[in-house]
Write a structure and sequence with these properties.
Largest sheet: 6 strands, mixed
Shape: elongated
Distance between the termini: 138 Å
Oligomer: single chain
Catalytic activity: L-cystine(out) + H(+)(out) = L-cystine(in) + H(+)(in)
Main location: membrane
Helix content: 40-55%
Keywords: Lysosome, Membrane, Repeat, Symport, Transmembrane, Transmembrane helix, Transport
Number of domains: 2
Membrane topology: Multi-pass membrane protein
Family: Belongs to the cystinosin family.
Length: about 425
């Protein structure tokens, strides 16, 4: 080389193992073609494939049709295989016998735009049907799936929907008999204040959980990243019910300030317990904000749901004990109890019907917390009904012997003097 420069008319390049000379213009053209081919390779149009529906609800033995739709025709022939997911496990073979295995789909270059597939249900349960391919011209295949729910009876689906509306309405209006009772008597004597504090705390934390899960995008993104093929457990009716419950409970608390409340007050035990709960919420909030991702926002909201569960377990105990001490249910609305019992009973009935129709008994016995809380509330409702209709039927509040002695002693002393 010796520092010599090739003239502009020729350039020495490597072709394979040999060093050859080509004209400058030819070499420049070769270079541009190489850049263009590299650019086209990097920016080759990718093909998206998606199902025509994301959810399919069907009855055992039925045959349903779903389409696989390509965003544009493929540039190369390809094969698409189907995946089957139950729980967290994704397989290439359908081992649960929920549907008849679906044969692979052949995609023909520059022709195939959509493919229709038949889904024959052979068992009752839940299944996520997905797709996969070894072809590099497709993208986002792991995100494409259809949720398949196979049930015993379509009639039970309708019945369950009706039952859902019944307990939603029953629970929603169950707050109003107590409000009316307080207004009618112009008194809240007989309504336990510990119960009210537990109730407002429970609905507030449950409201934060529902609103966060339903409306806050960051939280929803966190949930979907942990459950890529899951469904948000919080629906709009959950949010509406909780906000309504907070509103009516606040009205009841306001009544405690404007109506006769006697000598009633919140117990120190209740104040301590609720204070600790809110202190935990505040401290954990600072950890979420300043803790360098030590606790995620989603996990923080789960803490709210745990507090709600704890409150639900203990909130009825003070009212039941107060009724026992007073030997009366005067001031405690039985209408509230009856509507709550109706809502809880229909809720449990729906759980059993859903478990049967979906052949998914783990939804009840696999989640004992949800089932246990529903049954626990119903047991307290039964206790309140026994107190109201059997034990203390028509009784006025019990007066202590000390108070009675003072009331009798006063006129006797006056007569003596």
């Amino acid at each position: 080389m010796g520092g010599t420069v090739a003239p502009r008319s020729s350039v020495r390049i490597f072709t394979g193992r040999k060093l050859q000379t080509c004209s400058y213009d030819s070499c420049q053209m070769l270079y541009q073609m190489t850049k263009l081919s590299h650019y086209l390779a990097l920016n080759e149009t990718k093909v998206h494939i998606h199902f025509s529906k994301s959810d399919l609800k069907t009855v055992l033995g039925d045959v349903d049709s779903v389409q696989l739709i390509l965003s544009e025709t493929a540039k190369k022939n390809a094969t698409v295989v189907f995946t089957y997911q139950t729980g967290d496990e994704i397989q290439l073979v359908e081992t649960n016998n929920y549907i008849t295995p679906i044969p692979n789909i052949s995609i023909v270059a520059n022709q195939t735009k959509a493919v229709s597939i038949n889904i024959t249900s052979t068992g009752v349960g839940h299944l996520n049907l997905g797709i996969n391919s070894s072809s590099d011209q497709f993208i986002g295949l792991s995100q494409q799936f259809v949720r398949i729910t196979i049930v015993h009876s379509s009639a039970l689906v309708v019945i369950n929907s009706i039952i859902g509306w019944i307990y939603f309405v029953a629970w929603s209006i169950s707050f109003y008999p107590q409000v009316f009772e307080n207004w009618r008597r112009k008194s809240v004597v007989g309504l336990n204040f510990d119960f009210l504090l537990y109730n407002i705390t429970g609905f507030l934390v449950y409201g934060f959980f529902n609103v966060g899960m339903y409306w806050v995008d960051n939280v929803k993104d966190e949930y979907m990243s942990q459950h890529p093929r899951g469904i948000n457990p919080v629906q709009l009716n959950d949010v509406i019910f909780t906000l309504h419950a907070v509103f009516v409970t606040i009205i009841t608390i306001i009544q405690c300030f404007i109506y006769d409340r006697g000598s009633q007050k919140i117990s120190k035990f209740c104040l301590t317990l609720i204070s600790l709960a809110w202190l935990f919420i505040i401290v954990t909030l600072f950890v979420v904000i300043f803790g360098d991702n030590l606790i995620s926002w989603l996990q923080y909201l789960y803490y709210f749901s745990y507090i709600k569960l704890g409150v639900t377990i203990i909130k009825y105990i003070p009212q039941a004990w107060m009724n026992c001490q007073r030997q009366s249910t005067l001031g405690w609305s039985i209408g509230n109890v009856l509507l709550d019992f109706t809502g809880g009973s229909f809720s449990l009935l729906q759980m059993f019907l859903l478990a049967y129709n979906n052949e998914d008994w783990s939804s009840i016995f696999g989640d004992p917390t949800k089932f246990g809380l529903g049954a626990f509330s119903i047991l307290f409702d039964i206790l309140f009904m026994v107190q109201h209709y059997c034990l203390y039927r028509g009784k006025d509040p019990y007066e202590s012997l000390n108070n009675y002695e003072k009331e009798v002693e006063a006129p006797l002393l006056s007569a003596v003097h």
